[in-house]
Design goal:
Length: 287
């Protein structure tokens, strides 16, 4: 597929350790709705309104793969009781971002609300049945894609991304999205509303295909003259998943060739030299 079709995938992969970061901008907005509820559109909208950059699942999948290892630390701390993950770690992981949305962040709604008590809270939402169907046809396929299972043993990026992908499906849906997905969504939204009420914080609920007005009113911003963003409608999700995998296969093969080719050439040189020396020795012996 031509590169211009997927500008969010054809990006420079940055080999950066998130533990070395600090907070550089205040966290202003927490978008705590599940994926496939308009989070990509919300990301674009927030960045257009000046609340960017906004951290999205694509950030750690496409741009900063080592973030996945730190997200895994957060999952182990919360769900497995291994280690600690507090405000310091959140500022390292999300320190360059004014807003955050989508997975893996929404698995830590309680923790993020505690870490950033002055941040605005938004819940992107949609009908639970259509949401379940949309996820089953899109992001769940990445969890099951056989190329990811194989590639994680050969590509350093997939080796970081895919284990985290499996971890959040396990933690949020007990690794059975078909049976537990809808109940998990309802429980998550109820918890966010309850926590916000306890903390005296307002929550803006934005349904799929919303408009600028409620968001701008909530964030005290003027309504832009351009239409509200409509991103990632799901029609080409599988194509994008396969293109992302193709790029990682290409990168893995290129890295292998950079390592293997000099070794092959060196072995050939040794073999060729030994062959010539053997022939010369044979000629001398015959004389």
């Amino acid at each position: 597929m031509p590169q211009q079709f997927y500008p969010d995938i054809h990006v420079l992969v940055k080999d950066e350790d998130p533990h070395l970061r600090t907070r550089t901008v205040p966290m202003k907005v927490l978008v705590l709705g599940f994926p496939r509820t308009g989070t990509s559109s919300m990301q674009a909208a927030l960045e257009q309104l000046g609340f960017g950059p906004c951290y999205h699942m694509r950030t750690c999948i496409n741009e900063y793969p080592r973030d996945n290892a730190m997200w895994m630390e957060a999952f182990r701390a919360k769900y497995d009781g291994i280690g600690r993950f507090g405000r310091k770690e959140w500022d390292q992981l999300l320190g360059n971002y004014s807003s955050v949305c989508d997975l893996p962040a929404i698995a830590f709604s309680r923790e993020l609300m505690a870490a950033y008590p002055s941040a605005k809270i938004i819940l992107t939402n949609r009908d639970v049945h259509s949401w379940h169907k949309s996820c089953s046809q899109s992001i769940l396929q990445a969890r099951r894609y056989w190329v990811h299972e194989v590639l994680q043993y050969f590509d350093w990026v997939t080796a970081l991304v895919h284990p985290l992908r499996k971890k959040y499906w396990q933690c949020l849906f007990a690794d059975d999205f078909e049976a537990n997905g809808e109940a998990a969504m309802r429980a998550h939204y109820a918890e966010v509303r309850h926590l916000a009420q306890q903390q005296g914080r307002e929550v803006l609920e934005m349904e799929l295909n919303s408009a600028w007005e409620p968001l701008c009113t909530f964030l005290d911003k003027q309504v832009p003259a351009t239409p509200y963003p409509r991103m990632n409608d799901g029609s080409n999700w599988e194509l994008k998943m396969r293109e992302r995998a193709r790029l990682r296969v290409k990168a893995a093969v290129s890295k292998f060739m950079l390592i293997a080719l000099p070794v092959v050439l060196a072995c050939y040189g040794v073999w060729s030299t030994r062959g010539r020396l053997g022939k010369q020795s044979s000629v001398i012996t015959q004389r």
